Amino acid sequence: MTTVEMGIPTVRSSPSLAGRPDVPHLVDRFGRVARDLRVSITEKCSLRCTYCMPEEGLPAIPPGQLLTTGEIVRLVVLAVQRLGVREVRFTGGEPLMRADLERIIAGCAEKVPGIPLAMTTNGVGLEHRVRKLADVGLTRINVSLDTVDRGHFASLTRRDRLPSVLAGIRAAVAAGLAPVKINAVLMPETLSGATDLLQWCLDEGVELRFIEQMPLDADHEWARETMVSADRLLSVLGKRFELEEIGRDDQAAPAGLWRVNGGTATVGIIASVTRSFCADCDRTRLTAEGTVRSCLFSDTEIDLRGAMRSGTDDEQLAQLWRGAMWNKWAGHGIDAASFAPPVRSMGAIGG
Ligand code: SAM
Ligand code: SF4
What we know:
It contains 10 helices and 16 strands. With 351 residues, the chain is α/β, with parallel strands linked by helices. It has a single domain (2-349), classed as TIM Barrel (Alpha-Beta Barrel). Strands 1-2-16-15-14-5-6-7-8-9-10-13-12-11 form a 14-stranded mixed sheet. Strands 3-4 form a two-stranded antiparallel ribbon. Helix 1 (69-83) packs parallel to helix 2 and helix 1 (69-83) packs across helix 9. The chain is globular and about 55 Å long. Iron/sulfur cluster binds at residues 45, 47-49, 52-53, 92-94, 122, 144, 346-347.
């Protein structure tokens, strides 16, 4: 096994396949099969959310180390056709920061028709691009919005861009990307605004999903004691809304769901910290630099970019990817005394 130190995580060029059954799919030692691919396409972002990015942004990836449009499309097609991936989500950083986003989506839509192509975005500037994105093949969208209070938004994201995000969400609904889902990560200072956020989402006909804050902030300020847990959030929401628990929306992306005020609308909570769903995880991740990560919290990555650029064929690339996932660990272990956050922060991995 060759190991190349790149300053950030440990990047390996050939993972061990010892003990792996000879099957095409992305199986691991714990019986899981990865079918949901998250592709980060940039480290750049128009916001600086405190639970994600440092104030000055992430160090820029040198242009030659970023996957090109063609390389992203090639790896997505390979993942679908050889590895059994069934859903692809583009993320970052902020995917809208890439001028070739439409070409990336169009290229994938053309080569893997029928596969859902989704995007997670902060919504800044989305208003002007969402119709074209839907036209070229984007099928699903999640927009991140933590508060509808302009002052809170500006201090949390270090940018005064709330009007642009709200316009982007409305434009996504108008473009027919149903259902539009809203991701919210609550911090203690935005918890009191959770009910206004839910009311706004109910009024706009979009589905709100809260996500517990994970220890993936670049500033390493996450603390278990101050993190807003699912239980704490439910007690705040319960003061204004009647909530009836109705189960999970998907075994592998398990938002617990609650019916709101006896109607058809639901609110979800993804309790990634207090109710870990690692045992059901079906995700595999590609970073903007072209390395495979088997887990958000793992610091070991397998380099596909270097392999691709030195002429490795699709089946050999697929085998490297299988090896990366075969070595996936059981879970993040946030509760273990030995837990250490990964070197990459969320914006450099792709959430
Ligand atoms: N920039 C896009 C956005 O904000 O939607 C895509 C990238 S962002 C890293 C993807 C998702 O990760 C967002 O919904 C964001 O709220 C979430 N996220 C970022 N840092 C997080 C953290 N420390 N814990 C939990 N979720 C986090
Ligand atoms: Fe940017 Fe998304 Fe991270 Fe916020 S969560 S800083 S929008 S990458």
